[in-house]
Design a protein that fits this description.
By secondary structure, the protein is α+β, with helices and mostly antiparallel strands. About 25% of the residues lie in helices and about 25% in strands. It has two domains: about 220 residues, UDP-n-acetylglucosamine1-carboxyvinyl-transferase, Chain (Alpha-beta prism), CATH 3.65.10; about 210 residues, Enolpyruvate transferase domain (UDP-n-acetylglucosamine1-carboxyvinyl-transferase, Chain), CATH 3.65.10.10.
Length: about 475
């Protein structure tokens, strides 16, 4: 344990002492990350048919709760993703002072305390497996006059937080205690007012950008974040929705970069948020419909934010039959229904600058590439190594277990397909990673032999209805 100053005086629970969630929200929380493993097996069968609406977007769901906390008045949210990750963020917001009630399926109300109105939580903020929620909330605490301890499950304890802590320290946050390498459990003490800074992100990460912007809300001046490659912009969009002044300028060669400038200490007002369907969750039934012969599936209300549709762009380049229908606006985002038909895919090269717009979709893209004719090269996947698992290694192991020719070259993944179904028949180690589990269950719907994942429990963190949804389309997945 690296002790920077004494933590005992804070009166907080010791790092790692994760007390239970409050009873009124605990019934909503999945405990999938602590449950016994739940193996699942997917087998090929009939074509997939039907329509579905994926769960609400996880990124927007997290931010709706957090901005509701930091606003004055009520924020009403429709279509919230009620997965474990988002519910952990909701519980953290409640612990910091927000009033939160569930009104019905996907319908929530948050009564905020405003910037500067947060209180010290009475217990550890246990984020389970929620990397996004924990990092965004570190930005909130890091800019506010509160002290809080962060922790999570075994997977979250392995994930690097130093990239978040470094700019927060520059803004006046004190790291009271941390595990070696800046991992949780750790305790932060925020300043009375944050120091506005100009920060150039070392890697393309919406989480780093958002943490700095959230801390900058309590800074008396302009907080600026510079990105060499633009990442998802939900924080900027939603800050404006709640009343903040945010200026965004394209920079760099070809306008691929962004400079984001936030005017600090605004008065945020509670508002209504409609959460569109998550494109990262839509990716799984979408790819399944492409690779299972004879399939036709309509996926409704999918967010079409240009910084989130890298997978769709790539699949269309591979020859996918994906048709956009009924484009419209919901909650400040463009959404569309996607009609997807089984297609013959071909290998392509995926450029590294596309990675920020599809970073969570590479596992299922690798599955699509296994069915394509020719070689698919995915370049610059270093960020996959610091997700819920080392996703690059986990994907490679899963491909190997199911007879797919592939190669990892540094941070590049190369998949060699021959235009026919892979052998399958393997068991995939998921490493408590929901996207690894879903990606290889999708693979098993079209391989020659069934594919098993060692644990499907963690799927609840982002897509609680995945199993009945895929079964409803005709997919053969069973425990």
């Amino acid at each position: 344990m690296c002790m920077i100053t004494g933590a005992a005086a804070s009166g907080l629970p010791r790092p790692g002492e994760c007390r239970p969630a409050r009873p009124e929200l605990k019934k909503q929380l999945s405990v999938s990350h602590d449950s016994a493993p739940q193996p699942l097996t997917a087998s090929s069968g009939a074509p997939l048919r039907g329509a579905l609406r994926p769960p609400g977007d996880k990124s927007i769901s997290h931010r709706a709760m957090i901005l509701g906390l930091l606003s004055i008045g009520e924020t009403r949210v429709e279509g919230l993703l009620e997965g474990d990750d988002v519910l952990r963020t909701a519980e953290a917001c409640r612990a910091l002072g927000a009033g939160i009630d569930r009104l019905g399926e996907g319908r929530w109300v948050v009564r905020g305390v405003g910037i500067g109105g947060l209180g010290d939580p009475a217990s550890v903020l246990d984020f389970g497996n929620a990397g996004t929620g924990s990092r965004l909330m570190m930005g909130v605490v890091g800019g506010q006059p509160v002290t809080a301890t962060f922790d999570g499950d075994a997977s979250l304890r392995k994930r690097p937080m130093r990239r978040i802590l470094d700019p927060l320290v520059r803004m006046g946050c004190e790291v009271v205690s941390e595990e070696e390498g800046g991992r949780v459990p750790l305790t932060l003490r925020g300043p009375r007012e944050a120091i506005p800074i100009t920060y150039e992100t070392p890697v393309a990460s919406a989480q780093i950008k958002s943490a700095v912007l959230f801390a900058g809300l309590n800074a008396p001046g302009i907080t600026t974040v510079i990105e060499a490659a633009a990442t998802r912009d939900h924080t900027e969009r939603m800050l404006r929705l709640f009343g903040a002044e945010v200026a965004v300028t394209k920079t760099g060669e070809g306008g691929h970069g962004r400079t984001v400038a936030l005017t600090g200490q605004p008065i945020l007002r509670g508002t209504d948020v409609v959460v569109p369907a998550d494109p990262s969750s839509a990716a799984f039934p979408l790819v399944a419909a492409l690779i299972v012969p004879g399939s036709e599936v309509t996926i409704e209300g999918v967010m079409m934010n240009p910084l989130r549709i890298g997978l769709i762009t790539t699949l269309i380049e591979m020859g996918a039959d994906i048709e956009r229908l009924r484009e419209r606006e919901e909650g400040g985002e463009t959404v569309a229904d996607l009609r997807v038909r089984a297609s013959r895919l071909r290998g392509v090269e995926v450029p590294p600058e596309r990675a920020p717009s599809m970073i969570d979709e590479y596992p299922v893209l690798a599955v699509a590439a296994a069915f394509a004719e020719g070689t698919t090269r995915m370049i610059g996947l270093h960020e996959l190594r610091v997700k819920e698992s080392d996703r690059l290694a986990a994907v490679a192991d899963g491909l190997r277990a199911n007879g797919v020719a592939h190669l990892v070259e540094g941070d590049d993944l190369v998949v060699h397909g021959n235009g026919s179904p892979p052998p399958g028949g393997g068991t995939v180690a998921t490493h408590l990673d929901h996207r690894i589990a879903m990606a290889f269950l999708v693979m098993g719907l079209a391989t020659e032999r069934p594919v098993t994942v060692d644990d499907g429990a963690m799927i609840a963190t982002s897509f609680p209805s995945f199993l009945p949804t895929m079964q409803g389309l005709g997919g053969a997945i069973a425990g």
